[in-house]
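In this section we walk through a basic example: taking a raw amino acid sequence and producing a predicted 3D structure, encoded as discrete structure tokens. The instruction is simple. Fold the sequence below.
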Amino acid sequence: MPEMCVWVLAGSPVGSVRAAVERLPKPDKIITANGGSALAAQLGLVPDLVIGDLDSADPVLIDKWEACGVEIRRYGHTTKNETDTELAVMAAIEWLHGQDGTIYLFGGIGGRLDHTLANVLLLTHPLLMEVDLRLLDGREELFLAKPGRWTHVAAVQGDLISLLPVGDDVTGITLEGFVYPLSHETLLRGRGRGVSNEIANPDARLRFDGGQLLVVLSHLAD
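The resulting token sequence is shown next.
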């Protein structure tokens, strides 16, 4: 069975979104979180689900989609504990139903710093430990690598990559196909040793034993 692909569109300002979209597989499902409806309209997409308190969504657009059969899940602004983006990602996890797949989140980086940090830290959510969530903004791609397995880095020679421990130290890390390789070493929390590495060949991959590792990949070409 082919892997499922879900796109989540959030409301933060985005860079060259079309550059990011062109690198991705076509979505099986599309979810917009509140103001992400504007991004969907910009890309000419009709979502399968709109979710959130909808305080920054265009009501005319929402009414149009609802009349066309799009599912709308409205939440009270003062009664929910989650951000709209978190609600959208949780809905995407429901759609995966435990099968292999990837969630791509657009509009989760940029704009308000608190929302950006919340979306980056969303990668550490317990329900995402076995789910591949990727945050995209133009040439930037962020994801949390999983311990105990090889992670292939989908990049080309010259792309920049930074590896940052999130939480505990990252132990037993090995890098292959990087300009600056490592072999069973440790990246310490709060230190910058993993910043600004570079992809040496398209077969680059990484593996580590323990900890949580944030990967920040900068694609140099559109």
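Looking at the output, two observations stand out. The CA atoms of residues 87 and 214 lie 22 Å apart. The radius of gyration is 18 Å. In the next section we compare this with other chains.
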